[in-house]
Amino acid sequence: MRKMKAAVYVRPGVISLVDKPIPTAVPGSVVVRVTTTTICGTDVHILKGEFPVDAGRTIGHEPVGVIAEIGAGVTGYAVGQRVVVGAITPCGQCHTCLDGHQAQCGGKAAGGWRFGNTIDGCQAEYLLVPHAMGNLEPIPDGLTDEQVLMCPDIMSTGFGGAESGGIKIGDTVVIFAQGPIGLCATAGAKLRGASLIIAVDGLQARLDVARTLGADVTIDYTKSDPLTEIMRLTQGRGVDVAIEALGTQATFEQCLRALKPGGTLSSLGVYSGKLSLPLDAFAAGLGDHRIVTTLCPGGKERMRRLMNVVASGRVSLESLVTHRFKLDEIELAYELFANQRDGVLKVAITP
Amino acid sequence: MRKMKAAVYVRPGVISLVDKPIPTAVPGSVVVRVTTTTICGTDVHILKGEFPVDAGRTIGHEPVGVIAEIGAGVTGYAVGQRVVVGAITPCGQCHTCLDGHQAQCGGKAAGGWRFGNTIDGCQAEYLLVPHAMGNLEPIPDGLTDEQVLMCPDIMSTGFGGAESGGIKIGDTVVIFAQGPIGLCATAGAKLRGASLIIAVDGLQARLDVARTLGADVTIDYTKSDPLTEIMRLTQGRGVDVAIEALGTQATFEQCLRALKPGGTLSSLGVYSGKLSLPLDAFAAGLGDHRIVTTLCPGGKERMRRLMNVVASGRVSLESLVTHRFKLDEIELAYELFANQRDGVLKVAITP
Amino acid sequence: MRKMKAAVYVRPGVISLVDKPIPTAVPGSVVVRVTTTTICGTDVHILKGEFPVDAGRTIGHEPVGVIAEIGAGVTGYAVGQRVVVGAITPCGQCHTCLDGHQAQCGGKAAGGWRFGNTIDGCQAEYLLVPHAMGNLEPIPDGLTDEQVLMCPDIMSTGFGGAESGGIKIGDTVVIFAQGPIGLCATAGAKLRGASLIIAVDGLQARLDVARTLGADVTIDYTKSDPLTEIMRLTQGRGVDVAIEALGTQATFEQCLRALKPGGTLSSLGVYSGKLSLPLDAFAAGLGDHRIVTTLCPGGKERMRRLMNVVASGRVSLESLVTHRFKLDEIELAYELFANQRDGVLKVAITP
Amino acid sequence: MRKMKAAVYVRPGVISLVDKPIPTAVPGSVVVRVTTTTICGTDVHILKGEFPVDAGRTIGHEPVGVIAEIGAGVTGYAVGQRVVVGAITPCGQCHTCLDGHQAQCGGKAAGGWRFGNTIDGCQAEYLLVPHAMGNLEPIPDGLTDEQVLMCPDIMSTGFGGAESGGIKIGDTVVIFAQGPIGLCATAGAKLRGASLIIAVDGLQARLDVARTLGADVTIDYTKSDPLTEIMRLTQGRGVDVAIEALGTQATFEQCLRALKPGGTLSSLGVYSGKLSLPLDAFAAGLGDHRIVTTLCPGGKERMRRLMNVVASGRVSLESLVTHRFKLDEIELAYELFANQRDGVLKVAITP
């Protein structure tokens, strides 16, 4: 049996590179040789033991690669084809998928998120892709791996936050936190026609990137109070849509306080501990507020659309790749990324 | 100056019937002689001092009456015409109304709710209706006052909870609390095509009414655990839409726990104290949940539609009127209603 | 090789019962033994040669049956299970399905409609169901074949017309033509909360059924002019939604003329010949009109929802079955149905 | 009585500059001194007698100006304030406005379009604005008249075509005709996140402008066949949304033929003569197509949003002003504009 390198979760605090058998394409699935992948904030939650996965699970859900083996029943693809696969791999055929909630595939919360969670992921040399007919999307000619590396997760998630927020032309939108997902939400807000986009973070470098992706105004919360600034910028009106991209009580609450009556809080964060709704900001329930959460939309149609956005030049996220590592060095990559050292935004990992 | 009787807020715990001048129709407004009105749960919050209004404010926001005087600039109406006016009286011309958030008129939370809150209300012999062109709707021939008495608030609010929930044909919907608004939400869920409607309350009499309005299953939470029952009824799937119609942490939380991944919590309650989101039920933010709040939709078009629902016989809410009082007896009516004595659901007050 | 009886299209004017091999379950598919099926207006179009299919194609797309054989890769089902399969069998995994247009599966117009069109259908003893994981729905205990016989097509289509029309609570809706699909659209309009439902047809017997399914008013167009009546009933306002359920220029045009400015024409008909938009009724393009067409929604989640509507007693369509035939007699059944003899609405065919 | 200059419709072929009394602000209205206005294609239809208005009617519906007099009951504005008023002036208080169809104000087709149609318009020195509270929007500091001159009509209409089309991130959109409204639709498609925008026209100069506003590909229909090109560009898939911005059978039909199954035809044109739906392109009604028409959205909230889009620099339409005239020269301006001489796109008229 041929072996490959894979980064697996061992125990809280430890992700290690180990040898594993190369997967075989069972019916309906495809094996992809990973050419580039990356590390996500969620992987750090796993590393820290905050989001439990089985010991031995290969981590990673952001694959770019080449088809290596095609299982029975999968048609329309060829070995050697370059493909992107979404972080979320819906089956497309369960009640929940057919009801339009593909990310909750199987009717389980986050059930569509399989890679590096309930099955082996892509921080490895090879990846077994289930429900391949619905999840493999060829990469358009002329696009590099790094150009499409953000499609599987952060671009899909960030844009999803803008989409679920129901942004309309001329809206004012604030995005709290400008990590990779918040930056993509900023880009998404611009794509949907917001005319005043306010990005909030505590790191000037991230706010600088936010400006290149669509932010009209940036607020460094270590220097000024976001709510005071937002109310000044909106003449006391509040924002139409507030996007939460961190997953903390503080940012969730500030989002709610920033909203106009009738506004929408679009939440992307993964929360831990406790989350409360301040009733004054929530107008005791009388403010026609909406709170919507969005898990990364997946499936090959989503990937096709996102790569088209890249190909058209509408949004360029390559600059988010601040560091590059070989798969062999992935433990170093985790160390850098988990500690947000050296201005890291996203790392590219190449097996 | 002619005088009239009016029920005014005096101080926490005291609403008294006093003499006040009959209002005069200023430009754009109309004076309505109130023929029937009622008491709302919100009025009880005001009585208890939990929802502050100015001392001396006439209470009440559910008017049925007859046009007594028409102000300058108001056309298309005649003195003597029987009309219903919504609890919420949007101006129709501010930025917020034109943006589709009429209940938040003027851009202030609940800004469209004026009667018995920011201006004098209708627990009186006469009522001054602002923005009359957008808010007066003639009562179709053949409908009695009591048949349309629920249109201004509870029917509009309850149906609104079903509408905002985005109920689809074949949905399973649970409604927590079967007070007047919850009962209307139950009726609204049926009107939108839910095929399994579960009503929860602790009073059998209310659950019995819920059955007549559309509930397929009722759960007395004093006798069995709602969540266990809901999961059994849905084969563990959870409900598509959960409607909160009480305004407590317990019911809000049970709504969230009852939801399927991808489901919607439609909140109608007025909350006080604290409100927290249990993160397990909220899937840490990954469950594609939506939480929407709805303040009573107002305006004459809404009233026209609701009265058509009554006229067509689709929904009959007359049976909710369990007690009748003269305006002179309103203090007794408050005593009964605030203490939920004698199986009271709604009272009819006639000046 | 075992043989079965099947009704196949031979040439224009001829559908014959022939012997065919019983299909075998290939991977991803299931063979269903048909217990009850029916004939659709579209089958009559095929019979007449107006809608071309290959000679030798088994006709029929409304199956109720029992699982006879399960192909590789299909899990969660058992031989002997009673199931309903939609007329439309989306794959769930192509770009078009994942984009939410399952009825246009594969990106081809009406591509999701396979049975009796591009593959063999169900007017036979056995049926091969492709994409079985997404298309087989078990029948809830206690429901008879005839109770669920309308789910695969006319109930899904008719309800779909009401859903696509965007009916709101209190809407006025007219449905032109009260054949089986128009009757289901009438029932669907009621399920969505319309408060005035106007059914138009030229046969009193069909108008009588319309009343039992939700029509408040019926118009026999042989006796009075529908538009005059509609404008009288709506005080000149026009209807909010007009549903076309026949597929002719005359009914399409009357739908458009019946609409209010801002109204929606929801089209279910299959048109032949020419179709023109009268510009006066279309307000030269300035009337904010919407014209939407809906092909029968399919997939197992849709079937689950529709059977729940039946199980809850919300809508009962058994009375639409006016005649019953053995599969051996199907040529007689076509003769009756195609000529709309003897008050036929739908026939039940049992192999 | 003070007089002013006004361009009035006299008879087919004749619009003349005449003297008229300066209007007086009746209650609820405001008089605006017009500082800049323009000519619309619809005005040319009026000039040619194709769209009937009363003889003597002052033409024009695209006003930028300064408040000159404020009527009783209008608050929150000041004489001397610079304002924009939409071409459509909804009352905000009728059933139709409250139902969300403000452009059809009063329930009449195009009822919200009053200026230069049912009341005097703005090709004059002064303009009486009805329902002023809902229709006057102050111009943000720093914006010139010409920067906001497209807001009242073509920007609102063109963006409206993109909005009504339901464009999603990653959509392919074609816009047929790149006159002023088509160009704005092109800009609108980009604002909503389309990733492939195809602009079709027969004038290279207009296609060049289309590129600056968001078109990725332009097709000169005099040189190549649009449908062949569109199918090539979309790999035979068809477009998600096709926007019709001319008002002819040919472009309407090409839009329909360009659509994917499940696609939307968003129509902005004003049609005359006949309009037919080719049934092959319409898939005989089975293609889940949608056809939506959009009349220019009006009201002050819309103007606020559009001016914010201008202020943010998202879209710049100043370059559409190709020619400038004094009001005294308006007959020359009509002569140029009606004959599309000298590469004219829009003219600025200054009283």
Automatic annotation (TrEMBL), chains A, B, C, D:
Superkingdom: Bacteria
MF GO annotations: oxidoreductase activity, acting on the CH-OH group of donors, NAD or NADP as acceptor; zinc ion binding
Alphabetized Pfam families for the sequence: ADH_N, ADH_zinc_N
Enoyl reductase (ER) domain mapped to chain residues: 13-345
Cofactor names: Zn(2+)
InterPro entries in the cross-refs: ADH-like_C (IPR013149), ADH-like_N (IPR013154), ADH_Zn_CS (IPR002328), ER (IPR020843), GroES-like_sf (IPR011032), NAD(P)-bd_dom_sf (IPR036291)
UniProt keyword list: Metal-binding, Oxidoreductase, Zinc
PANTHER family for the chain: NADP-DEPENDENT ISOPROPANOL DEHYDROGENASE (PTHR42813:SF4), ZINC-TYPE ALCOHOL DEHYDROGENASE-LIKE (PTHR42813)
Family the UniProt entry places it in: Belongs to the zinc-containing alcohol dehydrogenase family.
Protein name: Alcohol dehydrogenase catalytic domain-containing protein
Gene source species: Massilia polaris
